[in-house]
């Protein structure tokens, strides 16, 4: 089924629209917004059309879905994932992708934030008529994020949260026998990540940071980002005009400081040159990195660079929890070990020292994931 923007002029009973106010795409309706991506003045209907069609094109060009595939939408109740759930349902019906969509949420255990946002996801479930599965940090790790912050301090909260949430989404998908998780990561997130990895000189992560599909070898779960080229401002506009029900409060624990700084930098650059978000992604996609052999100059002859840190490669399993890990012990188990040590210290000394967490962070920096 194809869809074209409606061409009937609206407002035809009211006073004539000046040419300069007409939509630059359909030339018949009044332009009501300046498109953040390219500053085109367009009408609401054309905005819906171009926004949805660009996402459809990203999906088709990258061959994201197979007919009959079961797909989990990582749903947090925030604007990105709410728009993603809405758009995926709409495009699946409009273009007959033939996929089976489920909402998958992670409850990190952040009182006053995640409990409220999960209430939004539950409403979305009813609004879109999609099944919903919720997995929680408490049930998987016996820790809530509130307990983690109380034990390890707020400084590294996003590191803990990111590692546990990534694994939780995988575990939730596996529980549902779903092998594809899609997330609402948008162009701004991706450009920020590219920038952060350049600024940190993190070549290993830079290489993967613009991939639309990611999957560890041996892992049954792949991830993809249909919003890879969608601007955050356009996602917000779409949610606003479509009156989608989403949760907009920020997390109680601020995003990690370095990402916050990269975000500010991106926003300043975008204000001067809106295309810089896409330009940074394209730069990341086209960077030609040195061959791995050259980057691991100190390897012994014949030694596999992937085994240099641990003797393990992607597809191996964590010795403790059995989860896929490129190291002997997975990142989540490393963090849990630090937390348990800290909890024990706190119980013994009634002291809120964060030394244990800092030690784990230092250890993690020397591991490859
Ligand atoms: S801001 Fe940090 S702690 Fe809060 S939900 Fe995001 S990653 Fe988790
Ligand atoms: Zn128009
Ligand atoms: Zn583990």
TrEMBL record:
<dbReference type="GO" id="GO:0000049">
    <property type="term" value="F:tRNA binding"/>
</dbReference>
<dbReference type="InterPro" id="IPR032442">
    <property type="entry name" value="CTU1_C"/>
</dbReference>
<dbReference type="GO" id="GO:0002144">
    <property type="term" value="C:cytosolic tRNA wobble base thiouridylase complex"/>
</dbReference>
<dbReference type="Pfam" id="PF16503">
    <property type="entry name" value="zn-ribbon_14"/>
</dbReference>
<keyword id="KW-0963">Cytoplasm</keyword>
<dbReference type="GO" id="GO:0016779">
    <property type="term" value="F:nucleotidyltransferase activity"/>
</dbReference>
<keyword id="KW-0819">tRNA processing</keyword>
<dbReference type="GO" id="GO:0032447">
    <property type="term" value="P:protein urmylation"/>
</dbReference>
<feature type="binding site">
    <location>
        <position position="184"/>
    </location>
    <ligand>
        <name>ATP</name>
    </ligand>
</feature>
<feature type="binding site">
    <location>
        <position position="106"/>
    </location>
    <ligand>
        <name>ATP</name>
    </ligand>
</feature>
<dbReference type="InterPro" id="IPR011063">
    <property type="entry name" value="TilS/TtcA_N"/>
</dbReference>
<comment type="similarity">
    <text>Belongs to the TtcA family. CTU1/NCS6/ATPBD3 subfamily.</text>
</comment>
<dbReference type="InterPro" id="IPR035107">
    <property type="entry name" value="tRNA_thiolation_TtcA_Ctu1"/>
</dbReference>
<keyword id="KW-0694">RNA-binding</keyword>
<keyword id="KW-0547">Nucleotide-binding</keyword>
<dbReference type="Pfam" id="PF01171">
    <property type="entry name" value="ATP_bind_3"/>
</dbReference>
<feature type="binding site">
    <location>
        <position position="80"/>
    </location>
    <ligand>
        <name>ATP</name>
    </ligand>
</feature>
<feature type="domain" description="Cytoplasmic tRNA 2-thiolation protein 1 C-terminal">
    <location>
        <begin position="316"/>
        <end position="346"/>
    </location>
</feature>
<keyword id="KW-0808">Transferase</keyword>
<dbReference type="InterPro" id="IPR000541">
    <property type="entry name" value="Ncs6/Tuc1/Ctu1"/>
</dbReference>
<comment type="pathway">
    <text>tRNA modification; 5-methoxycarbonylmethyl-2-thiouridine-tRNA biosynthesis.</text>
</comment>
<dbReference type="InterPro" id="IPR056369">
    <property type="entry name" value="CTU1-like_ATP-bd"/>
</dbReference>
<comment type="function">
    <text>Plays a central role in 2-thiolation of mcm(5)S(2)U at tRNA wobble positions of tRNA(Lys), tRNA(Glu) and tRNA(Gln). Directly binds tRNAs and probably acts by catalyzing adenylation of tRNAs, an intermediate required for 2-thiolation. It is unclear whether it acts as a sulfurtransferase that transfers sulfur from thiocarboxylated URM1 onto the uridine of tRNAs at wobble position. Prior mcm(5) tRNA modification by the elongator complex is required for 2-thiolation. May also be involved in protein urmylation.</text>
</comment>
<dbReference type="GO" id="GO:0005524">
    <property type="term" value="F:ATP binding"/>
</dbReference>
<dbReference type="InterPro" id="IPR020554">
    <property type="entry name" value="UPF0021_CS"/>
</dbReference>
<feature type="binding site">
    <location>
        <position position="189"/>
    </location>
    <ligand>
        <name>ATP</name>
    </ligand>
</feature>
<dbReference type="GO" id="GO:0005739">
    <property type="term" value="C:mitochondrion"/>
</dbReference>
<protein>
    <recommendedName>
        <fullName>Cytoplasmic tRNA 2-thiolation protein 1</fullName>
        <ecNumber>2.7.7.-</ecNumber>
    </recommendedName>
</protein>
<keyword id="KW-0067">ATP-binding</keyword>
<keyword id="KW-0820">tRNA-binding</keyword>
<feature type="domain" description="tRNA(Ile)-lysidine/2-thiocytidine synthase N-terminal">
    <location>
        <begin position="71"/>
        <end position="255"/>
    </location>
</feature>
<dbReference type="GO" id="GO:0002143">
    <property type="term" value="P:tRNA wobble position uridine thiolation"/>
</dbReference>
<dbReference type="InterPro" id="IPR014729">
    <property type="entry name" value="Rossmann-like_a/b/a_fold"/>
</dbReference>
<feature type="binding site">
    <location>
        <begin position="74"/>
        <end position="76"/>
    </location>
    <ligand>
        <name>ATP</name>
    </ligand>
</feature>
